[in-house]
Amino acid sequence: MRKTWVKRDNIYYKPFYKQKLKLTLIGVLGLGVLFFVYQLVYIKLGADGGSPPSATPLAANGGLHGSSNSDTGQHQYAYVERIGNHERMILRGIRLRDLDHYTEPASVSRASFRCLQTGRELSWDRVNDDYCDCPEDGSDEPSTNACVEGRFYCRFQKRHRTGRGRDRSIPSGWVNDGVCDCCDGSDEWLPIGGNLVPPRPCPNTCSTKYFL
C-alpha cells in the first residue's frame, strides 16, 4: 500500500488566533480603515468651520461700523485674495507687507489705526474716508486720491524682470483718473457708472514686464 503524505495543518484544526499572518494582515487593514475615516472627518471639520480668524479685515467707509454704502457695496475699497485655503479681504492700494497694519483687530486692545510714518492714532472709520489724516505718507487713504504724498500700490506687486526697482506703485492722484497705470489695471477699480472710467477695461500686461 502506497503512503500519502498529508500536511499536519490539514489534519489538525488550527485556531484562528494562532494564524499569525492572517491576524496581522487583518489588523493592518483595520488600522488603515480607521486612519482613512479619521482623515475624512478632519477634512470635513476643516472645510465647514475651521478656526475663526483673530482679526477682521477692514472695510472702508464704515463697512464694519454699521453704515454700509448701498451704491458701491460694503467692501468697495477692498478685493478678495485667496491666501492658502482661505479667502481674505485686502484693501486696495496697500503694500502687501503692510497688511497687518490694515487689519482691524477683533478685540479692543488696539482700537485705533496708526499712520505708518508718524504713528499718529486714528479711529478706523477715518481710514479711506476721502480725507487725508496722515499727510506725511497718506497711509490712511491707501485706496483714494485724497493725500498728495500718498502712494497706491498695484494689486500685482512684483519687481521688474531686471530685478531692480521697488514694489510697483503710482501716485495716489493717478487712481481712477481714466488712465491705466498698473500693469493689471488695479488702479482703475471704479465700476461702470463712476465719474472717471477707462473707455474699455484695462489690459493685463504684467506677463510681458515681469517674471510670472
UniProtKB/TrEMBL annotation:
Report the GO terms under cellular component: glucosidase II complex
Domain (Glucosidase II beta subunit N-terminal): residue spans on this chain: 91-207
GO BP term (any one)? N-glycan processing
Q: Does the keyword Transmembrane helix apply?
A: yes
The cross-references to Gene3D superfamilies, in alphabetical order and at most eight, read:
Low-density Lipoprotein Receptor
Keyword annotations from UniProtKB, A to Z:
Disulfide bond, Membrane, Transmembrane, Transmembrane helix
The membrane spanning regions, by residue number, are 21-41
Q: Which InterPro entries does this UniProt record tie to the protein? A: Gtb1-like, LDL_receptor-like_sf, LDrepeatLR_classA_rpt, PRKCSH_N
Its domain of life reads Eukaryota
Which PANTHER family does this entry report, sorted A to Z? GLUCOSIDASE 2 SUBUNIT BETA, N-LINKED OLIGOSACCHARIDE PROCESSING
User: Which protein is depicted?
Assistant: Glucosidase II beta subunit N-terminal domain-containing protein
In its UniProt entry, the species of origin is given as Anopheles darlingi (Mosquito)
